[in-house]
# Entry
Amino acid sequence: MYWSGKKIIESGIVKNFGDRALQPSSIDVRLSDDFKIYRNIVRNPPRLQLLKIEEKNDYSSFKADKICLLNKHENVNDVKRALKLNGLKNYKLVKGLLLGSTIEWFDIPKECVGFYTGRSSVGRLGVMSHITAGLLDNGWSGRITLEMACVDNPVLLHAGMRIGQVSIAGVEGELTTYNGKYQNQKGCEISKMYEDDDNFSIERKIIFKYREGYSIKEISNDLNVNKEEIVEVLSKAGYNIISDVLKEMTGD
# Structure
């Protein structure tokens, strides 16, 4: 049975909701100013040979009040000229996939499940605000990561705008709660597929964590691998980790 929008708000499971959040059987959620875009041209799926990546991170994080979201075939110079003619300034151009997040924080009870869907008004502009994975498991807490893309002409997105909606329903049967890799996410998170045991070797997990900025000590604790093995894996993958090793030795 789906909850009414009023029950969702009164339950206290959503924090920081907006003044116009209430809907008949859902609540509207807003776009935050926290975004990420991937840098790499090829996103390594499981089981591909390890590639040497010069940068630790395959993505860029940034804050923005206005985003001009383009489809992957759009001519950037044409868009810039159109925006200038309309007097639009202080925006960031993003071509292709954009990761964002909601302002709202959710604490889904163990007896409930949540569902995110995009707002119809936003979808009619050609924006997919969530490409897939709109399920909010029972027991999950955090801000929703949005997988956004534009399928038609460029669209301006504004931080604080109502981007989608969340509905809540009850769960029947024996209950287990979510305890996965996206628990308590505070903003938009990149894919952590590398943590799936059925997809990646321990070597790949070490490299992905290192590229995300984890220290050798943190990787060792998270993956239960000794530091010597981590250093060997990273060295073979082409990373210059001398400075990181020295920091670990000196405790800096």
Summary: The chain has two domains: 5-170, 193-250. The chain is about 25% helix and 25% strand. The CA atoms of residues 16 and 194 lie 31 Å apart. The first strand starts at residue 14 and ends at 15.
